[in-house]
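Why this split exists: single-chain examples teach little about how molecules sit against one another. For that reason, every record in the complexes split bundles all components of an assembly together and asks for one structure covering all of them. Below is a record exactly as it appears in the raw files.
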Amino acid sequence: MSRERRDVPSTEDLQPVAGGGLLDRRLFLKRGLILSGAGAMVLAADAHAGDDALPWMRKPGRGFSNYGQPSEQERRAIRWISANRTVPGNGVSWTPLHALEGIVTPSGLHFERHHNGVPEIPFERHQLLVHGMVKRPLAFSMADLSRYPMRSQMLFLECGGNSNSGWNKEPLQSRAGYLHGLVSCSEWAGVPLSIVLDEAGVDPQAKWLIAEGADAAAIHISIPLEKAMKDCMLALYQNGERIRPENGYPLRLIVPGWEGILNIKWLHRLELAREPVMARNETARYTELMPDGRARMFTFVMEAKSVITSPSPGETLPGRGLYEIRGLAWSGRGKIRRVEVSADAGRSWAPAQLQEPVLPLCFTRFRIPWNWSGAPAVLKSRAIDETGYVQPEREKLIAERGRNGYFHYNAIAAWQVEDDGEVTHVYR
Amino acid sequence: MSIARCLCLAALALPAISATPAVAADHVVGPMLGKSASAELVAARSSSVYPDGRGLPQGRGDVESGRTVFREKCASCHGPAGEGGPGGHLAGRGPLTGPDADKTVGNYWPFATTLFDFVHRAMPMNAPGSLTVDETYSVTTFVLFLNGVVDGQRTLDALSLPKVRMPNRAGFVWIDAKGQPEP
């Protein structure tokens, strides 16, 4: 501990609230940002002084642009792609969660999972067909659908296969986003699905909704009608603009809190049925083999998960002192009630600050100050949602599910900080 | 003002004037712009095949013709005998327990209709939807043969395919759809 250091807050402020140097979550709120234990440094005056110190202030800047792009210097904040070598449109790209702050994922960094590429669909030719067990089979143009009453909601969206390297025997060394970034969070806007289903007149005997996309995989999937009527959305916009092609332009089904595969991109068909269609992606895939040889099926809800985005693997901490541990938590069952952080591999835990607003089925940003002593430490976070569900340790998840499940891995992640500041992924 | 626009306004006014108990307080009514979908459109788009055989087109296929289709259209990704390649392996009846548990059509897929549905809509990946109905029945029958589910003399069609009992039919536990109607 560095309690006696004169350039950090008072001794009382730096009393740890849990092992490994975790501090009261309100410390930064009280004291303002104090990110370095070294105190204010005096910058050397040689290289950055004189008339040419800020040349960008000495000439007119660039003109306007029709659509803005990230800074040229931020080229490393990108999706990481892993695709089939013979079918480039079959694979995934991860959101770089470690490079982002706040709770919104920029649309261009939203994760992708495509089964056979991104179709180019003309807006004016796209139709949504509603048929099957309905009084009136209907077709909607996108222009007509755009006239319907809309709403928007901030929602996380997570692939059922997110974090699945966690089932591996050895911890994969990668950035936090490339381990856990098949999840993103956007403001989705569109038409409540119930309006359109009501217009078609659903047969009371219908219990399932089969949704299909207009891509080369013609992906279709079964959703219980009760969920469809409750809170699903025909989304036309993402983060304020029309949905991008790789996220389903022009129409995406949004199924709040449920696994990504149900959120059909390029949606063009909804069929009401008595029973599920038993598609390939709800039988052969997106089911989880258990140790006894049976498999979990229709595991729709994405259970609570959290991940520390900073410090995280691939970073090297510059030295001991004060840091803000930052991360994201989310639950498919509702709001995050609490996130606890450990800096001693789970021996002790302290509550993190949850940044407002804490919204249901949405990313919640958590933060906690940490006074790193310079000794090796293991950082963990665990989410607890409003139902009381506690994100499990990896050992517990594997004891329950075995290691053949592939999907729905939501165990606590552990980052080891070495004495030289290097952060790695460990199983602890 | 177009007729559609008038309908839109009328419908939007409904919640304000409606006091019938049948309409929930938060019930939102749209402008009712859906166009009646013709039977032809519905038939052309209805591609889903259900476990009871609903949606299966008329046609038929056997193991030997399936072997030919598979060699020409599937083997480059899945291997000549379904043993795998860039598209993954399709055949095998190993156990689903233990560290080497390996899911295949034969030991994992619960319904034969799913195989037809998937091949017909999505395979081969470089030309999805290009197989004829008979080719799809043939290659479905051949893959079931590779997995030891049907014998080499078998012919399958819209009536017989749903009756093929897959070995792992009872191997699944429903988690978030309990109480929903099953196939």
